[in-house]
Amino acid sequence: MTDYTAVLIDFGYILASMLFIIGIKMLGRPERARRGNMVSALGMLIAVVVALLECCLSFSLVIGGMVVGALIGVIAARTIKMTSMPQMVAILNGFGGLASLLVGWENYHSSPDGNSFVIFAIVLAVLIGGVAFSGSVVAYGKLAERISGRPIFFKGQKVVNAAIIAAILICGVLFAWSPTATYAYPLLIIIIGLSLFLGVLGVIPIGGADMPVVIALLNSYSGLAASAAGFIILNNVLIVAGALVGASGLILTGIMCKAMNRSLANVLFGGLQTAVSKAGTDQVQGEPSPISPADAYFVLEAARSVVFVPGYGMAVAQAQHAVKEIGDILEENGAEVRYAIHPVAGRMPGHMNVLLAEANVPYEQLAEMDDVNPIMDSVDVCVVIGANDVVNPAAREIESSPIYGMPVINADQAKTVIVLKRSMAAGFAGVDNPLFVKPNTRMLFGDAKASLQQLVSEFKES
Amino acid sequence: MSIGLLIFVFILAIFLGVELISKVPSQLHTPLMSGTNAISGVTIVGALTAAGTGADTFAAIVGTIALVLATINVVGGYLVTNRMLAMFKSKDQEQK
Fold first, then answer.
1. What confidence tens digit (pLDDT) does each residue in B3-36 have?
2. Is the CB of residue A416 less than 8 Å away from at least one CB of chain B?
3. Chain B residue with the nearest C-alpha to that of A89
4. A48/B45 CB distance under 8 A
5. Distance between CA atoms of residues A92 and B48, nearest Å
6. Rounded to 5 degrees, what angle do the CA atoms A209, B86, B26 make?
7. What is the end-to-end Cα distance of chain B in Å, rounded?
8. What's the rounded Cα separation, in Å, for the pair A65 and B70?
């Protein structure tokens, strides 16, 4: 390789890193986000082309692998339903983690005599990549409801986790100590196995409602795994891009935790256990008052301002288009319509925003919790669609409640609250919701989509 | 390249990442996550080298699997993000 090509390669990687940074920056602004994504994709294309210049004794495998991967990627991205987006993001993330793990493995296999820094990076790439992969697969299973979304606990879980982490540390040290010894290769395989196991054990105790935190965290891990892979092959673009993703995932994780008023440790190590055990002691007194669609129509027809609060139930019922339809009718009727979105509503960060965007709700109508709460007492009707914990006034009022202190949307302060709900079952956290028995609350029981469609036909008939 | 320099680059990039993300409105959290997820597929660069320069058949197989997975991550990630962002419309765009 001449010096000239080496310089070209360096500049190519610098350009790619810059495009990633600019792309992420643009992703933070709604009007520029789409172009930002394309900018970062261009960066990736440059990185791949440069890597092709640099690498490769045999191109057949390389081209073949990329064609197969690209085909699968295109088909999956085109055919996936918007409601399945959380599990799609989870599984793609898992693939990235596994790729980093395999890159580490291959590097050790091909040159086990690397310096101790590279060997250390291999351990890190394998460990973080393994946890990101198996954790994402379990998260995928929970989100796609292939396995139960309920948290799974067993006795001595924390002890087992600690033992696995200790075993990984010991194996890692022994491995890095003499990577060319005969026992080193089996040790690496053990580390891979334990890392995969750790990822599974780490995610199974986490319930569906805490998924936004876990997905953001796993996203961070796969970035850090890519960074570790960068330290193995001494490549700056991997280090920079991986670090950016690692940092952004951690920030997002922090935002999600803050929105639930819980620490990361509390989310990861079963804060829900306490929630379930406490729930029985604080029975909410009172009877819910049901309302028929016909009566709900009269309430909404008279309303001048309406706020919709969607939750995971809207995603399950796939009611986003029906919500948009009723929202449009209310606007034509002269009401001011807004959608209030809690940061952790749904199963991934920003889940509700994606669904409402799919239904063509313009983003100006979407309000964040902090913007809508101060004006809630001037709102005529607040319609809660399949949300429970994120509108639970117990978080403000009942100190013994497990979710006490969590910031919630103050739906109960609206003049009238209409709650669309399947039944009186408690929300995911297993906490009773006093909102349902407040005097200004009416319960519209039934499937959210069917109820909304009934409301639409009431409006059309009149 | 010296190891110290690589770590230096890593630390700076972490700080940069924190600065870039801290002010993103919550409506963009999903696209941001899936967009950065696609970027974490940059491990494709490592996979390319692994698949193309493996010492033996086993290394080539492991490298190629890594390459396929990383490519799915990159291509799927960017396309899915693009699909989501295409749905985010402002009021003016909707009326057009």
1. 889 999 999 999 999 988 887 887 888 899 999 9
2. no
3. B34
4. yes
5. 18
6. 40
7. 53
8. 10
| Closest partner CB to B30 (pick from A85, A235, A250) | A85
Our CA dihedral for B16, A87, A255, B71, rounded to 10 degrees, sits at 0
Residue with the bigger pLDDT between A7 and A40: it is: A40
A389 annotated active-site: yes
Q: Is the minimum CB–CB distance between B8 and chain A shorter than 8 Å?
A: no
Which CATH architecture describes the domain A293-461?
3-Layer(aba) Sandwich (3.40)
Q: Do A95 and B69 touch (CB under 8 A)?
A: yes
ipTM above 0.90, yes or no: yes
pLDDT reported for residue A284:
61
Contacts of A219 in chain B (CB under 8 A): 33, 36-37, 40
Spatial CB neighbours of A45, under 8 Å, sequence gap ≥ 6: none
- Rounded to a whole number of angstroms, the distance from the CA of A286 to the nearest CA of chain B is 35
Chain B contacts of A51, Cβ < 8 Å?
44-45, 48-49
Q: Give the span between the Cα atoms of A278 and A380, in whole angstroms.
A: 34
Residues of chain B in contact with residue A21, where contact means CB-CB under 8 angstroms, are 16, 20
Q: Which helix (H) or strand (E) holds A16?
A: helix A3-27
Highest mean pLDDT among A57-66, A159-168, A398-407, A417-426: A159-168
With CB atoms and an 8 Å threshold, state whether A89 touches B74: no
Contacts of A40 in chain B (CB under 8 A): 35, 38-39, 78
pLDDT band of A401, cuts 50, 70, 90 = confident
Q: What is the pLDDT of residues A161-198, one digit of tens each?
A: 899 999 999 999 999 888 888 888 999 999 999 999 99
pTM higher than 0.90 for the full model? Answer: no
Rounded distance between C-alpha atoms, residue A33 and residue A110, angstroms: 41
Instruction: Locate the domains of chain A by residue range.
Output: 80-270, 293-461
State how far the Cα of A219 lies from the Cα of A226, in Å rounded to an integer.
11
Cα of A22 to nearest chain B Cα, Å? 9
Partner A, chain B 29-48, Cβ-Cβ below 8 Å: 29-48
> What is the arithmetic mean of pLDDT over B82-95?
77
A328–chain B Cβ distance below 8 A for any pair: no
Own/partner contacts of A180-187, CB < 8 Å, gap of 24 or more, are: A180/A112, A180/A113, A184/A112, A185/A108, A185/A112
Judged on CB neighbours under 10 Å (0-12, 13-18, 19+), A365 is: middle
Q: Which two tokens stand for residue A94?
A: 């898992």
Q: Does B96 touch chain A (CB under 8 A)?
A: no
- Cα separation, B80 vs A80, in Å, equals 9
Give B-chain residues touching A243 at CB under 8 angstroms.
10-11, 13-14, 16-17
